[in-house]
Write a structure and sequence with these properties.
By secondary structure, the protein is of the alpha+beta class. It is built from 10 helices and 11 strands. Helix 5 packs antiparallel against helix 8 (293-318). The longest helix is centred in the last third of the chain and has 26 residues, at 293-318. The chain starts with 14 loop residues before the first helix and ends with a helix.
Length: 354
């Protein structure tokens, strides 16, 4: 029987661990605690409900994502945004010293206020709000400074993406969907490698090396926004915030808020994107009146880079993309990257500064 890729179980808190961690916080009597199965499987989260009705989200940082200096940078940024009334969750400090970062027995913990809200519904109105709020984020952090070093890597022209592409044939080799199709997989990976290289080269020719760098969110997608009564209630997950040209956030947002998918497998996902949502996100951000022509000309190729990078990194590590087979996702990515490439000139005319 052919080998199958199994989905790893989510990491969890142990009962003893939870009791010790909670003893460091002044959150009152906890009436209930339940798993919060979102985000990385390696980073356990709990939704805590206090007896007085308050709700908190407790998070244990995954190994490799728990560098205290990196976490400190994120926390300073969160605090900065909260002070400017930007809608991000409040950090809960420890009982003794109000430290936003708790380190115990080699592990790193954070606690946040839990914000109740609904997920993005795909409407044009919420899509435009997502673009508007990204612009507000970039405006708010324009003057942000901190003693903590900010990460600098990103999906554009990234050696890690190329390394991941090279690793994929080995990590997916045992899956049923690949057996008998090894040559097709190699051709597929080579095609994506060439598409990524070509897109990166075009972006570089647009002057990317000289673009001003500021703090960007780094992961602006529908899952990181919460809405309440049709308006944005919270921006989540600043763990990917880093120093890069803001246009990288814009291109990724355009991709994420316009991508079309179905409840069926990736083989059934449309190649095209929802151009109405793409245009509304773009209108919300408002770069047309403030950006440079070179950056606007690079957006479609940045979308191609982002699309490929997001897929290949987890597939190179596990052979799959969440619960989806890596091979199927890669074929879908190639179709969507091909669509973007074919529409490049037309989309660029829409993005160019007027």
């Amino acid at each position: 029987m052919a080998a199958r890729i199994t989905t790893a179980r989510r990491a969890q808190f142990s009962p003893g661990e939870l009791a010790v961690v909670l003893s460091h916080y002044d959150v009152g009597v906890i009436a209930s605690a339940r798993d919060f199965p979102r985000g990385s499987r390696h980073s356990p989260k709990l939704l805590l409900c206090a007896a007085d009705g308050r709700q908190f989200l407790l998070k244990k940082r995954a190994a490799g994502q728990d560098d205290p200096f990196r976490v400190a940078f994120t926390h300073v940024l969160l605090t900065y945004l909260r002070e400017r009334r930007f809608p991000v969750p409040a950090l809960i400090g420890t009982r003794d010293d109000q430290n936003s970062l708790l380190q115990l027995n080699g592990a790193t913990y954070e606690m946040f206020e839990y914000i109740v809200g609904e997920r993005y519904n795909g409407s044009l109105d919420q899509t435009q709000q997502a673009g508007e709020l990204l612009r507000q984020f970039h405006d708010e952090v324009r003057e942000f400074q901190t003693e903590w070093a900010s990460p600098a890597g990103a999906y554009h022209d990234c050696p890690t993406v190329r390394q991941a592409l090279n690793a994929i044939p080995a990590t997916t080799a045992g899956h049923d969907s690949v057996i008998g199709h090894e040559a097709e997989l190699l051709t597929l990976v080579q095609d994506l490698y060439e598409r990524y290289d070509a897109a990166a080269e075009r972006v570089t020719r647009c002057g990317a090396d000289g673009w001003a760098r500021r703090i960007i969110h780094g992961d602006w997608h529908p899952g990181n926004l919460l809405f309440r009564e049709g308006r944005v209630a919270a921006v989540l997950d600043l763990d990917s915030a880093r120093l890069q040209p803001p246009i990288l956030d814009v291109a990724n947002g355009l991709l994420q808020f316009s991508i079309l998918r179905t409840h069926a497998g990736p083989d059934e996902w449309p190649s095209a994107f929802d151009e109405a949502r793409m245009q509304r996100f773009w209108a919300g951000y408002g770069l047309r009146a403030n950006g440079s022509s070179a950056q606007c000309s690079a957006i479609t190729d940045l979308m191609i880079e982002s699309l490929i990078a997001e897929a290949v990194l987890p597939i190179a590590e596990t052979g799959s993309f969440g619960h989806l087979t890596g091979f199927g996702v890669l074929k879908m990515v190639r179709r969507k990257a091909e669509w973007l490439a074919k529409q490049r000139d037309r989309l660029t005319r829409q993005f160019e500064v007027q």
